Amino acid sequence: MRARKSSFSKKSFIASHPLISLFIMLAVALSLYATLTSADKINESPVLENNLIKETMITQPEKVIDFIEGILVDISEQQLYLYNNGQLIRQYPVSTSKYGIGNTAGSNKTPLGRHRIKTKIGDDAPKYTIFIGRQNSGKLADINESRDDLVTSRIMWLEGLEAGKNSGKGIDSYQRYIYIHGTAEENAIGTPASHGCIRMYNEDVIDLYPRVDEGTLVTIQE
Questions:
Q1: Looking at the structure, do residues 136 and 53 belong to the same domain, yes or no?
Q2: Is 2 part of any domain?
């Protein structure tokens, strides 16, 4: 006697159970949605990454980012920045002229533009040493006790590199004795208080001095 062939099949079983069919359709739909969402995230991630990079790049002022080498003095910020191979390695507060910006001899104003350190003076002088006519006086300044325009500790004498702006008759930074130097008026650092030079804390000018050479570029900007 031959066994009776069963009429059961998966298709007929699923068709006779509508809830199972609904679950299968839902699972397929969820799988398709997950695939599409993953693809969108892959496509969007470079845009997000680029936005984050752009935001990081503009956290510093553009004028500082664009500076490549040497010293940058920013008058509006009363700061001196030292760069090496495009990297900011030191930042110091300074004091530029209380008379403002200018290049004319006798104006006591701070000149703008590109300069270089022509002469360095004061290699081994003790901290707070007073220089008179760029000569070591052998005396030490009383810090914040004198309102005289004393030059102390170290001198970096600047030479203008732009004819008609900071170099030439009547406007020459070198002949105007424009220096980066220490000061006895340390309590005025961070505000315009000098007679044309760039003043620094004595400790800071001593720190900067060996980091630069004669010939180092110095740019002074508003």
A1: no
A2: no
- 115 and 144 belong to one structural domain: yes
N- to C-terminal Cα separation, the chain: 109
Using DSSP's 3-state secondary structure scheme, residue 91 falls into strand
CB 82 within 8 A of CB 88: yes
Nearest-angstrom CA–CA distance, 104 and 170: 6
Amino acid identity of residue 82, one-letter, is L
Q: Which domain holds residue 168?
A: 62-221
| 106-142 pLDDT tens trace | 999 999 999 999 999 999 999 999 999 999 999 999 9
**Cα–Cα distance measured from residue 32 to residue 40, given in angstroms and rounded to the nearest whole number:** 13
β-strands 217-221, 70-74: how paired?
parallel
Answer whether residue 80 is part of any domain: yes
Entry pTM = 0.70
Residues 135 and 170 in one domain: yes
Q: How far apart are CA 219 and CA 208, in angstroms?
A: 15
Q: Rounded CA gap, 178 and 176, in Å?
A: 6
Whole-angstrom distance, CA of residue 170 vs CA of residue 154 = 26
